[in-house]
Design a protein that fits this description.
With 242 residues, the protein is an alpha+beta fold. It has nine helices and seven strands; from the N terminus they run E-E-E-H-H-H-H-H-E-E-E-H-H-H-H-E. The chain folds into two domains: 3-28 and 39-106, Orthogonal Bundle (Helix Hairpins); 118-232, Iron/manganese superoxide dismutase, C-terminal domain (minor pseudopilin epsh fold, 3-Layer(bab) Sandwich). The protein has a three-stranded antiparallel beta sheet, sandwiched between helices. A two-stranded antiparallel ribbon has the order 1-2. The chain has a two-stranded antiparallel sheet with strand order 3-7. The structure holds fe (ii) ion (FE2).
């Protein structure tokens, strides 16, 4: 049975006749909680408008494809070659925006946690030389992204894979390149322009105090699984069955 959600009709796609739509996750803290490093107005616009827009467009483009409506955004990204050609680009861009922003909100926390500890601290020292060298590598990579994109700390999916800093363009994600994301920063202008204007390096440098290293370490401890297994397990929070 079809249902109307937010003024649109979604076709039943789940066993038992439920309707699945992608939903905007709530911020895990108040929008002003990351002040002064990330300002509240930017957070409101970024989450409530930009991220919400990707979720809306993803649901919209899937309206006529009920077989895809029960799939998580992660599944859609990992199975892009199975998507109909006429919607593939739109689905990839908006599912990517949805997944990346969902990770980004959880990469931050009020007051952050200062610096990595435990096994992640040891891994960063092993693969980058020191925490300070890692941060410089991350900042330099983020500053060098041409146009809009993301900068990541990832772990290669293979067993004992090393940590690496990588960047992606647009809303591309490391998970389609065999890498598992541990930490991410958004370097689209909408992430920083209101406060930092054109000074992206200042934004990157000023972001470290709000990094949630406990979340990064939690992800590191789970990164021995393959990226697809891990993301499939995490995909549930990106999709709500109504
Ligand atoms: Fe963004």
């Amino acid at each position: 049975m079809d249902k109307t959600i937010d003024g649109r009709t979604a076709v039943s796609a789940l066993p038992g006749g439920g309707v699945a739509m992608h939903v905007l996750p709530e911020l895990p803290y108040p929008a002003d909680a990351l002040e002064p490093h990330v300002d509240a107005r930017t957070m409101h616009l970024h989450h409530d408008k930009h991220h919400a827009g990707y979720v809306d467009k993803l649901n919209k483009v899937l309206e006529d494809y009920p077989a895809l409506q029960g799939k998580s955004a992660t599944w859609l990204l990992l199975h892009a070659d199975e998507l109909p050609a006429e919607i593939r680009t739109t689905v990839i861009r908006n599912a990517g925006g949805h997944v990346n922003h969902s990770l980004f909100w959880r990469a931050m926390a009020p007051a952050g946690s200062g610096a990595p500890e435990g096994v992640l601290k040891d891994a960063i020292k092993k693969d980058f030389g020191s925490f300070e060298l890692f941060k410089k590598h991350f900042d330099d990579a983020g500053a060098a992204v041409f146009g809009s994109g993301w900068v990541w700390l990832v772990r290669a999916a293979r067993t004992d894979g090393p940590l690496e800093v990588m960047t992606t363009s647009g809303h591309e994600t490391p998970l389609t390149q065999g890498c598992y994301p541990l930490l991410v920063n958004d370097v689209w202008e909408h992430a920083y322009y209101l406060k930092y204007e054109n000074r992206r390096p200042d934004y990157l440098h000023g972001w470290w105090p709000v990094v949630d290293w406990q979340e990064a370490e939690r992800r590191f401890k789970g990164s021995d699984q393959t990226a697809q297994q891990r993301w499939e397990a995490e995909g549930g929070h990106l999709l709500r069955a109504l």
